[in-house]
Amino acid sequence: MADINIIDTEYDFAEDYYKNIDPDKYNKILRNWHKILWEKYLPNTNTKFTLVEKNYGLYHNSNLGDFYLTSDGIVHTYSKGYSDPNIINQISKDEIENFYHIACRIGAYILFPGYRIDNKQTINGARGCNQKIADRFDLTLECIRLYYNGIVEYENNPLGDVINRYDNFFKLFIDFKGYCEYFLLQDLTTDNYTKIKFHLPFNNFVSKPRPSTVEEYRIYMKNSIEFVINRNNRIKKYVNN
Known about the structure:
Blueprint: H1 14-18, H2 23-26, H3 28-38, E1 52-54, E2 57-62, E3 65-73, H4 85-88, H5 93-102, E4 109-113, H6 123-129, H7 137-148, H8 160-165, H9 167-170, H10 176-182, E5 189-190, E6 195-196, H11 214-240
């Protein structure tokens, strides 16, 4: 069992999934590590974004507003319930298992607003249901980048409407660079935060988001693993400073 107050980037939350337990909701270690990581000063301010445990998430209340945030896994293997099992069957079980366990480490989790506005979908819910996103975080981050550039129309930004609905949350970070630096997402961006390092070639949300060939799956797996490893290294540096 990991120490709830000491972040271990090698700790594996997969055990919860094996027990049909959602760590995003029920794992107190994960919740406390989110608090340690994201309770800090907001960009270009002297205001600390304090977080207290509430229900199954973390809550902030100040003159900035009320924010209830919940954990979300941001790396998916697409190995279970996959639309084309023939693709997965051509990848060794050891490779899939390794990918799965890396996707269950702290570097593969983030916080999003967990409260509904006007009884509409949260970001977490919308990005999982949107067929142009299919829960891929690199595509979600592109939508967030577009939002900060003022692009929220569905035809250009499939999550623009839902992200804009949580405008008060995203304004806390001032701009896309502020958001990425706050949540240690630098390794998923390039060219001074003007572009996303996509896990698969990107063509403006036209292609199906899930890998459709064995080759694509291997590219997706390699880039996803690289992202988690790099983010875990950033987390280690951050908590040790």
